[in-house]
From TrEMBL:
The gene is thyX. It comes from Pseudodonghicola flavimaris. Belongs to the thymidylate synthase ThyX family. This is Flavin-dependent thymidylate synthase. Homotetramer. It comes from the Bacteria. Pathway: Pyrimidine metabolism; dTTP biosynthesis.
């Protein structure tokens, strides 16, 4: 199950004892605090704490104290300006701390974003739970023939069933051996820090992940993208929902300029200007490689 009884009891207790505060709060985020949102078969994402809101971004940009006489519309316009012109430090004034339960192989992708503070569940100190990620049949696919790091067509029938059975059997066998090695029933038992190395990468781990909004947006731009691996994308998509309620102005600007926008090279801009003038531009006359031209055409349609 996503949450242990102890974790659920802690969450229920925290939500039952709201604390008064003088700091700025975001009503949308207050409703999410401590709640665990399920992801994949055993995972979750939950907000443990946060700092700042849309107003904090504007306050930092204006280097002022308080909201002053600026209107809400001016705040949104300022945030859009900051996003449009790639100003980063005002967005760093907001932070969020998440508790995430995720498969180890997803964690290894996630940790490549080296711009957060992370504290992971210790398998040297504690015993890992018997929980493994097993993909749903609609996510069991062959290697892509056009993308060396992606998936292609779905596996079907007997082949899909065979793959899923191997994943389940190997996971169960590895955990059985893990338990047998650390058991102290009639033996000393292998140290947990050694026994863990026999566990597969689809076993679940947990961590606290604290990141500022600027770096969180960078993470989401890459991992909530349609080309990201499904198993990390679903976590990013769940986090997107939280951020949209936390800093709605900033998130709308992020969606517009980062998720929905495109960065064009000088060569690409020159091609667009030529096209607008009525010139027929081809890959051969564009000055782009075949790969660049293919990506350019995906942007301009």
């Amino acid at each position: 199950m996503p949450l242990s009884p102890e974790q659920q009891a802690e969450i229920d207790d925290l939500r039952a004892r709201p604390q008064p505060t003088l700091r700025s709060t975001a009503p949308g985020m207050e409703g999410h605090l401590y709640t665990a949102y399920p992801v994949l078969d055993h995972g979750f994402v939950r907000v443990v704490d946060y700092m700042g809101d849309d107003a904090a971004i504007c306050q930092a940009a204006r280097v002022s104290y308080g909201k002053g006489t600026k209107s809400v519309s001016n705040d949104e316009g300022l945030i859009r300006y900051l996003m449009r012109h790639w100003h980063s430090t005002p967005f760093e004034m907001c932070e969020i701390k998440l508790h995430v339960k995720l498969p180890v192989f997803v964690a290894r992708q996630w940790i490549r974003h080296r711009t957060a503070n992370v504290n992971e569940y210790s398998a040297r100190y504690s015993i890992l739970d018997r929980e493994f990620y097993i993909p749903a049949p609609e996510h069991v696919a062959a290697q892509s023939t056009v993308n060396n790091q992606g998936r292609g067509e779905l596996l079907e029938g007997a082949e899909a069933a065979r793959v899923l059975e191997i994943l389940k059997a190997d996971s169960a066998r590895a955990y059985d051996n893990y338990e047998a090695m650390i058991s102290q029933d009639g033996q000393q038992g292998l140290a947990r820090e050694l026994a863990r190395m026999n566990l597969p990468a689809n076993i679940y781990t947990q961590w606290y992940w604290k990141v500022d909004l600027h770096n969180l947006f960078h993470f989401l731009r890459l991992r909530a993208d349609a080309h990201a691996q499904y198993e990390i994308r679903v976590y990013a998509e769940e986090i997107c929902k939280l951020v949209a309620d936390w800093v709605p102005f900033a998130y709308r600007a992020f969606e517009d300029y980062r998720m929905g926008g495109a960065t064009l090279s000088a060569t690409a801009l020159d091609c667009i200007r030529r096209m607008v003038k009525g010139e027929e531009v081809t890959q051969e006359t564009s000055g782009m490689s075949k790969g660049e031209w293919r990506e350019f055409m995906q942007v301009v349609g």
